[in-house]
Amino acid sequence: MALIVQKYGGTSVGSVERIQNVAARVKRYRDNGDDVVVVVSAMSGETNRLIALAGEISAAPSAREMDVLVSTGEQVTIALLCMALQEIGCEARSYTGAQVHILTDSAHSKARIMDIDHARVCADIKAGRVVVVAGFQGVDEHGDITTLGRGGSDTTAVAMAAALGADECQIFTDVDGVYTTDPRVEPKARKLDRITFEEMLEMASLGSKVLQIRSVEFAGKYNVPLRVLSSFEDGGEGTLITLEEDGVEAAKIAGIAFNRDEAKLTIRGVPDHPGIAYQILGPVGEANIEVDMIVQNIANDGTTDFTFTVNRSEYAKAMAILDGISTELAAREVVGDDKIVKISLVGVGMRSHAGIASKMFAALSEEGINIQMISTSEIKISVVVDEKYLELGVRSLHEAFDLAGESAD
Amino acid sequence: MALIVQKYGGTSVGSVERIQNVAARVKRYRDNGDDVVVVVSAMSGETNRLIALAGEISAAPSAREMDVLVSTGEQVTIALLCMALQEIGCEARSYTGAQVHILTDSAHSKARIMDIDHARVCADIKAGRVVVVAGFQGVDEHGDITTLGRGGSDTTAVAMAAALGADECQIFTDVDGVYTTDPRVEPKARKLDRITFEEMLEMASLGSKVLQIRSVEFAGKYNVPLRVLSSFEDGGEGTLITLEEDGVEAAKIAGIAFNRDEAKLTIRGVPDHPGIAYQILGPVGEANIEVDMIVQNIANDGTTDFTFTVNRSEYAKAMAILDGISTELAAREVVGDDKIVKISLVGVGMRSHAGIASKMFAALSEEGINIQMISTSEIKISVVVDEKYLELGVRSLHEAFDLAGESAD
Hints:
Two copies of one chain form a homodimer. Chain A has twelve helices and 18 strands.
């Protein structure tokens, strides 16, 4: 008998039939003696339908009103799921984000959860009810409706689990767990039974979009055991995301993440003086362009080369800004390439195992793949390569680190 | 410069283009110096779509969850209307029923408004903003979402106008005012410039479905001047619904209402003793069947005949109940007819003018229309006739009381 928070995404509640399937699964947990709190997203397609409506009215609708609009999506789902639960004899009660006081800051469309008043939820659980909470949404101190941004339902679930001290937070999705890499690229990709929060963070932020990054951060911070499961297959154990366990020899490599949406920009021959990085990246940040990798090499003749990557969709915008900066700084030239990808090796085991990087570079070199940029952190190594090498690169690394075998530690 | 509450129904906000038209009209009032609070319904079709979704899941969904579900309809509209207003340079802010604390009782799907906290709305008005409020919905003392039942947006608008002490509450609809009768039945039907609350109540409850009854009651109680206007034609004055003015000779007859959905049931030869009416109507009421007209004639040989009308859709159900009662009471027989209609003459002038009833009966008799039942109140006379006489009856009365002429007082 445990207290479990379950989260079902838009695809899992995408039709009446799927909502009924979710209700049936929740009931099995209840029949098994577990207390269940369910967090749901909007039915798939619904949020896009609402955004399109707004788009017909305004090219730049107010963020406050967008949140009022799109938060209706989850509200529909919580009501329908409660009806489906009640229909099969499972007492249930729905709550919007505002009703359970998921207090957030006022940053509409990307608000952060600050507090949850779980008194009502606890009372319902005690009374034997399943509680169904609208994901993705909250309310600020003025009583205005806020949303956490796309994928925010994961964060709602984790925050709910943390507030309630739940035994486990289960994220039901359309995949049955976290894989060593994308099975569409490497068919030998293997489902991981466990992964640490840190590894998951790197995997998620690098493009393995199973979970929203913030939900993993949150789960790590409050040590909420997080499990990714398939909402379409029953009986699977999914992947458990937990703290690194002491005494257990961690796998060297958890998996290989990649990101196809990268573009790189280089400004050559800028004066190498303090503050140059800010002079270059300040205007880019002010234009709301997110910068991913940043590499600066040592200076030559008092000048240096500065390279960074951005999302491919912002390449043209970033290039225009950089051209302006280049003139100001009297740089030699600005060059760029939007036909690149990033491949990253992730694993907490890197901390204690030397030679991972050289093994990675060797594997790529054997396939004739030229590495254009390298960036490392404590538990990951990322390289930028020509986009044509993505599949070959991922597969050669998967092979080199023996990730397909059960012996991959 | 006035404070005006405007209400737009589902048809008036049924598409993005219509929402933009509403925004344009609101802006004209603002440009004219008026303060405007707008109450809106769900886009036409939306509530039915949501109800159908629930219907796929449950034949009898929980009323609490139904309210959570359908209240999303208005929430979508308030957000879209605010965006449309902002797009044309009109500052606006949306509120759900819960956000402006439209406090209701807990009777889900037919809740009654008990209080409105208008502090936030007043602050917005003061700051020069248009306030857009979701109609039809409120929140109970537990924080649960409630709805006022279909057409409840009118009530929200009137309650809002009363709470704010607005100068006028304008109900925009798909007709340009209240008519002496339904123009589809009598093409000579004339738009009324004014009608009293009481007359409007009788007209509305008798089938002229321009306004929700409760909203008229509410407006009468708090003396909120109510105006019905077309949302598709500009410049019309519509019909103003107000208190009866002293010293002004009221029109004898305001109009002719009718109801096609009637069926009558008669139980013959029941013992004429005290409590007999309750013995007959008690079980009917318990079955949630609403009874409209009730007629009981004087007794004969210690027994009496008892007739009442119900909505045609409940005829079979009511008949079955009456058959059971008939056996219990050893009544002579039960007869019924579901091919009848009710025609009613409405006017506060009746109070002070004799001879209205006889003039009505004469007009019907001249056309050979047999009157099956008669029921009167202070300001209306209703007759039940065979349904085939509906159009003829309405037109002959319209003619007899000269309702088409401007001299119809």
